[in-house]
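It is worth pausing here to work through a concrete case rather than discussing structure prediction in the abstract. The textbook approach is simple: state the sequence, then state the predicted structure, then interpret. We follow exactly that order.
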Amino acid sequence: MSNDAAPVGEKLQKVLARAGLGSRREMERAIEAGRVTVNGQVAGLGERVTEEDTIQMDGKPLPSGEEKRLRVILYNKPIGEICSRHDPEGRPTVYDRLPRLSSGRWISVGRLDFNTSGLLLFTNSGELANKLMHPSSVIDREYLVRIQGQVDDDMKKRLTTGVLLEDGEARFTDIVESGGEGTNRWFYCVVMEGRNREVRRLWESQGVRVSRLKRVRYGSVFIPSHVRVGQWIEMEPREIDDLCITAGLPKLGQRPLTQAEKETLQRQRRKLRKSPGQGQQRKPTRRSNN
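Step two, the predicted structure:
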């Protein structure tokens, strides 16, 4: 039996990500670039820290416990926005419409491409974002897709059994038809990963064309009917708790809302409900058991 003592503290990049300064990978790059100090000394990658340590990034201390609150917002992305913070071509980005944070920054939970609309989650916790995106969390994503071309049972069977794409085998865990006419039909389909353009590539591997694509669910989170395209809504603490449990993170140091924060949340929700959005085309499909 080993007598080695257990490591003390947490890895620095994890602490920085949880503080909302970026994803864990981004924080690793910041440490390697010498932008982070611990107790006045330039930090090294993999260094462990405790609550007693003084940590700074770019000369600024981490947000204090009073400033820090785990936040998640749901955004109904329109077609025509990119998921990068800045675009050399000057196209609008999803970050243009998001509320400002007093400290840290919004981290996108996955991406949607330029021509895909629908549900996007953002959080100020790098740890939560990392867990929600990681394949080991096995979180399903559901899309509404309009297909141009003939779709038969054999094609659906191939798509749910597995198709070899250029980056490996992929499949839908569920496909449910949802109306349409002729060769233009709507389907709900579920994937368990967040690979680049995975839904489009799966359908196109069968010789059909995707003419519309919208994400309608991420895990247990749906787009509320009153959140129109281009609008966002902040999730309440109980909703965030459920999301953390889905990600396998039951405790992330969530502090209670102040009265002012509660009033802000209520005000924003009342504002959205005053101008109801387009009705959702369905109550989303069954969850896949695969």
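Step three, interpretation. Residues 277-284, 286-290 have pLDDT under 50 and may be disordered. The chain has three domains: 10-61, 72-135+220-274, 140-218.
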